[in-house]
Design goal:
This protein is an alpha+beta fold. About 30% of the residues lie in helices and about 10% in strands. The chain is globular and about 65 Å long.
Length: about 475
């Protein structure tokens, strides 16, 4: 859609300065049906209304903003998660050359990892000649079109809310110094920059079938690189329009749910209508560019996850719950055990680095075909009280045609899931070196997926 953008006079103040007037944060007296926990209500007659995140997640109490310095990667970088994980991140070099240039920590030289190079470039300045936006709806459509043109697979806009924001020193994606707003708290940031732009790239479906394999790793890691490049370009586009673009300030899942990216599944992943769980969720862009926020969607994920449990059955580390949603940090949702999921990596890194089984096995993660669309439309259009019956029927169909885990043989470049890891000399095309490996044996169209239980029993209690 073509739009006409009018240039305004050069402005002297910094975009997003305290004198600007973004839309106010929504405030309201909580009605009786809202959370009744007295801790949730701050002193005074008015409180912030909890954000609407859809049916799969509910804010039901006080939320403490998460300091990303306490998240898995920074904790592991400091050696707080044990020697095995520390060595995995800092002292392992993959024997696979494709992994060395796509995965974030298995390279021989980090300068060969393109995301490192891109992220260490200095931030661009905001254009002092701000483009005047008279129609936020048209600008929203335009910005989405730009993102899709740059290679995004799904784009949405969310209304920022303090509960979505990170605390403390922000987990900034790039390695450069912070920006002038880094000292601002969640509420201040939301007042200055009321919109979050959520951009995702989807993992290739066919390659994802080779989960627990280097082919699946490639689908996952290349998607990350693409997403990072797209977001960097989109940040620059927004700054050239004369508006601020910040990253590393907000939780991508919360923003995605609020904006209509999808619903949160039992596996702890945002499940999209078109791509299922095979989407990458990088940090969104926070901005003061006038936009129109989307709304949460109902694709039937909430009802399906209540009765499916396929991801919990197939999780190699028992990190996904079989039980109901629980309240954690004031939020009611399915809670996974991130630590046991994280601990798997050092014991499998010689063959693959990202499990992806829960994303692959999800019934919503299917090819973009008419029957996939028809199934979701049927579930969406079914009244909520009647959905359990439809879910049971759809899951039976999924079990019949796709099984518990679809071990399909996947071939990609020199890789082949029909070959047991370690039995092929080299994945580099044209290489004839022996490398001391056994002769590869391939039988039929069933892929080989590295067994897990004997490797994970050492840190996961089963029973």
């Amino acid at each position: 859609m073509a739009i006409t953008i009018e240039k305004a006079r050069p402005r002297q103040e910094e975009p997003g300065d305290p004198n600007s007037k973004p839309p106010p944060i929504e405030r309201a007296h909580l009605p009786p049906e809202e959370p009744s926990d007295p801790k949730f209500k701050q002193p005074g007659p008015e409180v912030l209304r909890p954000p609407n995140l859809g049916r799969s997640v509910h804010v039901v109490g006080p939320v403490i903003n998460i300091n990303m310095d306490k998240s898995p990667h920074p904790m592991n970088a400091r050696g707080e998660l044990g020697k095995a994980l520390f060595n995995y991140q800092h002292n392992t070099i993959s024997h696979d050359p494709l992994t060395r240039v796509t995965a974030p920590n298995h390279f021989n030289d980090k300068r060969n990892f393109i995301a490192t190079v891109v992220n260490q470039t200095s931030k661009g300045k905001v254009n002092p000649e701000r483009v005047k936006v008279s129609d936020p709806k048209a600008m929203t459509e335009h910005l989405k079109a730009v993102a899709y043109h740059m290679g995004a697979d799904f784009v949405t806009i969310a209304q920022a809310h303090p509960t979505m924001m990170y605390a403390g020193n922000r987990y900034v994606q790039d390695g450069t110094a912070g920006d002038q707003y880094e000292a601002d708290g969640p509420a201040d940031l939301v007042r200055k920059f009321p919109y979050l732009i959520v951009v995702t790239t989807a993992w290739d479906y066919d390659k994802l079938q080779a989960h627990r394999h280097q082919i699946g790793d490639s689908a996952y890691h290349v998607s990350q690189i693409k997403g990072n490049m797209i977001l960097k370009a989109l940040e620059g586009y927004i700054r050239e329009l004369g508006y601020t673009a910040l990253r590393g300030v907000a939780n991508p899942q919360a923003a995605g749910l609020a904006g209509g990216m999808g619903e949160l599944g039992r596996n702890g992943l945002v499940i999209n209508e078109k791509f299922g769980a095979r989407i990458h969720m990088p940090d969104p862009i926070m901005t003061d560019l006038p936009l129109i926020a989307g709304k949460p969607v109902d694709n039937g994920v909430t009802d399906f996850c209540n009765g499916c449990r396929k991801c919990a059955v197939t999780c190699p580390t028992n990190s996904i719950t079989f039980g109901d949603r629980m309240v954690f940090n004031g939020v009611e949702k399915f809670k996974i055990n991130w630590l046991t999921c994280y601990k798997l990596r050092p014991y499998t890194h010689e063959f693959w680095s990202s499990c992806l089984t829960c994303a692959t096995i999800c019934p919503f993660t299917k090819p973009n075909s008419w029957w996939h669309t028809a199934a979701i439309q049927t579930l969406r259009n079914t009244p909520i009280p009647a959905r359990p019956v439809v879910v049971k029927a759809l899951k039976a169909i999924d079990d019949r045609f796709w099984g518990v885990v679809k071990n399909k043989r996947v071939r990609f470049m020199g890789y082949d899931t029909g070959i047991k890891p370690g039995e092929e000399a080299c994945t580099v095309a044209g290489c004839t070196a022996d490398h001391g490996a056994a002769k590869a044996k391939v039988e039929g169209e069933v892929g080989y997926y590295f067994p897990l239980k004997e490797n994970t029993n050492r840190f996961v209690k089963r029973g």
